Amino acid sequence: MNDRRDALIDGEWQRAHGESFTSRDPVRGDMVWQGHAADAGDIARACDAARSAFAGWYRTGFADREAVVRRFGERVDARREELARLMATESGKALWDCRAEVGAALGKIDISVRAFHARTGDVREDDGGGTRELRHKPHGVIAVFGPFNFPVHLPNGHIVPALLAGNTVVYKPSESTPACAAFYAECWREAGLPPGVLNVINGARETGVALLANDEIDGVFFTGSSAAIRGASSPSSLAATTRS
Q1: Most exposed of 40, 88, 110, 113 (fewest Cβ within 10 Å)?
Q2: Residue 65: phi, psi to the nearest 5?
């Protein structure tokens, strides 16, 4: 299934240059995905691509970003059974659970759009002696880490709001579910997401540590304990999920 889908960088699937690894059906032991982890050069290229795409993506405006996200939802909905079956095979979860997870991922789109409008906006007020203005802006380049047990719903719950807000993303899925991540990312490509806005790199803990150490990362979104980011080059800077 791999067909060189090691890494999605700047809109193109590429072979990565780290060690090879596989994901297997935990029930039958069959190989689901085989490829290479991202090395330091691959990670740097993914982060550079996200940085280069950031200004253009943010300047498209919310309506255009929402339109891409909606098209992504349509692509997932059209292939929801295929995605659920792939998830069940690669993660070992029950098929009914995977179908529910795909539904939850789709539901996150409306939730995120409503949340964006509820929590953002520009406010300008005159106070007699001057003007007060409140504006919201994206963080920049966001690293997203995905878990193996909810390989679509949980990273999607970070990626959709991040993209709606104008951020760009470098996504590192669990090394146990790279095929699910490839399928997910391909739905974004089919939706017309511009190159570099979402990049995907694969690998285990070492890949994650190297991603966190990259200077282009402005924020980190993940679901889990602090152990998920332990070993970063400057842990104190990661006490919050984003840095100023």
Answers
A1: 110
A2: -65, -40
- Residue 243 covered by a domain: no
This prediction has a pTM of 0.89
Q: Spell out the residues 6+ positions from residue 102 whose beta carbon is closer than 8 angstroms to its own.
A: 76, 80, 83, 84, 87, 152, 153
Q: How many domains does the chain have?
A: 1
Q: How far is Cα 142 from Cα 242, in angstroms, rounded to an integer?
A: 8
- The yes-or-no verdict on residue 132 having pLDDT over 90 is no
Name 207's Cβ contacts closer than 8 Å, sequence gap at least 6: 18, 37, 38, 43, 172, 175, 201
Give me the CATH number covering residue 180. Answer: 3.40.605.10
Contact 161, 169 (CB under 8 A): no
Average pLDDT over residues 128-138: 83
99-117 residues labelled b (16+ CB within 10 A) or e (exposed): bebbebbbebbeebbeebe
123 versus 158: the higher-pLDDT residue is 158
The predicted-structure confidence for 91-115, as pLDDT tens digits, reads as follows: 999 999 999 999 999 999 999 999 9
**Helix or strand or coil: residue 162?**
helix
What range defines the domain where residue 31 resides? 7-238
- Alpha helices by DSSP H, the chain: 40-59, 62-78, 80-91, 95-119, 153-164, 178-190, 205-213
How high is the pLDDT of residue 242? 39
244 in a structural domain: no
What's the CA gap between 198 and 195, in Å, rounded? Answer: 7
Strand 198-200 to strand 168-172: parallel, antiparallel, or no bridges (unpaired)? Answer: parallel
